[in-house]
Amino acid sequence: MDHKNDSDPTCPFCPFSDPGISRVVEHVDVYHPEVDTQAGHSRRPANAPSTGTGECSGDYTECPHGCGEIVLNTELSAHLDLHFAETVALDDISSCQPELPVDMESAVSSHDAERQEWLERGTPGLLPSEDRTLSSWSLIGGTKTPHNGRAKRLGRTELGPHAHEKQMPSWLRRMLERGSMSIFTNTIAVDGTLRRREAVENETRDVIPVLARLCEQDKSVQRAFFCSPKVHQISKIPKEGGFCGYRNIQMLITYMKETQLPGHERFPRELPTIFQLQDMIEDAWDNGFNSVGRVETGGIRGTRKYIGTPEAQALFSSLGIQCEANSIGASKEVRAHDALYMNVAAYFRGSCALEEGHKVMQTNLPPIYFQHQGHSMTIIGFEIRDGGSANILVFDPMFRTPPAVKRLRGPQALTSDPARVLKVYRRGTAYLQKYKVFELLNSLAYDVKRASQWA
């Protein structure tokens, strides 16, 4: 190994050094994305303050699992734990394993009993204590109007490690243009005919009915709610990196296409690609929808810059698809993650008759675009556990559909350990309490009267 030379360029934030200045610059871009010389305000999500472990350290590392994510060293263990959960197969689950207790992720709370009472009897809608504004911008009819001041160019804290790149690397562009691998299978239909079915490598249908059955089977679950079973689970392809926002938009579009909601005709064929979604967002800015986004990002076409709730809302609003964005934070009475639980519970409970007494309630509601600092997911459900603890249930594009879930899609398929299969879909207090602000984007283009059915 070469010896360090005192004259070598060094990183200003850690002991790293290299004879090549370009290597040092690349190191800073990748491992210290929270340090930026340009003034900017928080955008992922908007108005997010410092988020506990998320912004206090410059110690980043690339996920050794190969997903392409760059994560904080302090969060690497939890990240790898979810990677392990996504690989669980039925063969890995022993029939003699005891039922798992409520996991630590969903049990870290000192107000569980009080929260359960609210979740059971609360009224639908936003909590009075919630902040309905997104950053210093008011969202009216899908456009942003500044309250004061000028929009500023954002940096790496908000847009990710590649905030200032002009174009993504050519190898990544080629990989994304190729897209996911399609797998063709032959199945026998009910009428006895042979049908050929195409399955996309990173897209899985019929996951929500499996999760509903697992929640029914899990003795630690008191009550669970799910959105429409027609939502597809979509994950990133290996090595693509930080395109979670685009993958979540694709999941919302699968719901629109499957249910033929107003606006589905905008997506007549296969799902739009990442590049097509970038074009649609840029077109939305051109037409005045959240157009400040172009100033803040410097443009996203052909780049790896992070997108968030404002871009998703701009895209859907520009296509005439009604949606509503809300920012959720802490108040004197309610912590941010508890406010999130209450909001999501109210969303699902508003279409259900709780007196029916069903443990698992399957609705036809749209999924929810969910954002916190640095990452976004798609909320597909909510559950209340023993003792009043709660989880949101998500499709996280960072993780693939576990093999066990694919094998459980048969109507009679069961497992002896539902909690283990559900782990990759659950986000509880231990995860959520690290963040001070959350954003939700709800579609308004659905019929509430038709939104309820039971599993």
Mind describing the biggest β-sheet?
9 strands, mixed
**Helical residue percent band:** 25-40%
- Counted beta strands: 17
CATH topology: Cathepsin B, Chain A
Number of helical segments with 4 or more residues: 15
Which runs of at least 5 residues are low in confidence (pLDDT < 50)? 33-58, 93-111, 122-148
The SS-based structural class is: alpha+beta
Which geometry do the CA atoms define? globular
Strand content: 15-25%
Radius of gyration: 22 Å
Structure characterization notes:
The structure is a single chain. The chain is an alpha+beta fold and 455 residues long. It has a single domain (70-454), classed as Cathepsin B, Chain A (Alpha-Beta Complex). Helices cover 30% and strands 18% of the residues. The chain contains 15 helices and 17 strands. It has helices at 21-31, 73-86, 104-107, 112-121, 156-159, 170-178, 207-217, 244-259, 274-286, 292-297, 309-318, 336-349, 403-407, 418-422, 429-432, and strands spanning 60-62, 70-72, 137-140, 143-146, 182-188, 194-200, 203-204, 221-226, 233-234, 323-329, 360-363, 368-372, 375-385, 390-395, 426-427, 437-443, 452-454. The strands form 5 sheets. Strands 8, 10, 11, 12, 13, 14, 15, 16 and 17 form a 9-stranded mixed β-sheet that branches. Helix 9 packs across helix 11. The chain is globular and about 70 Å long. Mean pLDDT is 76; it is low at 33-58, 93-111 and 122-148. Keywords: Hydrolase. This is Zinc finger with UFM1-specific peptidase domain protein. Residues 34-57 are annotated as: Disordered. GO terms for molecular function: hydrolase activity. Residues 221-441 form the UFSP1/2/DUB catalytic domain.
